[in-house]
Recover the amino acids of this structure.
């Protein structure tokens, strides 16, 4: 069974984009950016497909933010 490495993605995203509030005070993915990142990791893991290039991103996440970190969806 594939493992969705959401924690690894959060570590990388918070290093590369510290200005985005990925986690809440209790270190849970409370922000829209954090939830969107987790959803993208789970999507990619379950379907075996990159989320890069998908047209959807939620309200509160800009197109530029959705495309980051470079080469990956938020």
């Amino acid at each position: 069974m594939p493992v969705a490495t959401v924690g690894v993605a959060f570590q990388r995203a918070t290093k590369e984009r510290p200005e985005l509030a990925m986690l809440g005070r209790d270190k849970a993915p409370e922000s829209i950016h954090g939830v969107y990142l987790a959803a993208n990791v789970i999507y990619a893991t379950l379907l075996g497909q990159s989320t890069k290039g998908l047209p959807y991103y939620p309200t509160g996440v800009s197109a530029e933010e959705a495309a980051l970190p470079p080469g990956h969806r938020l």
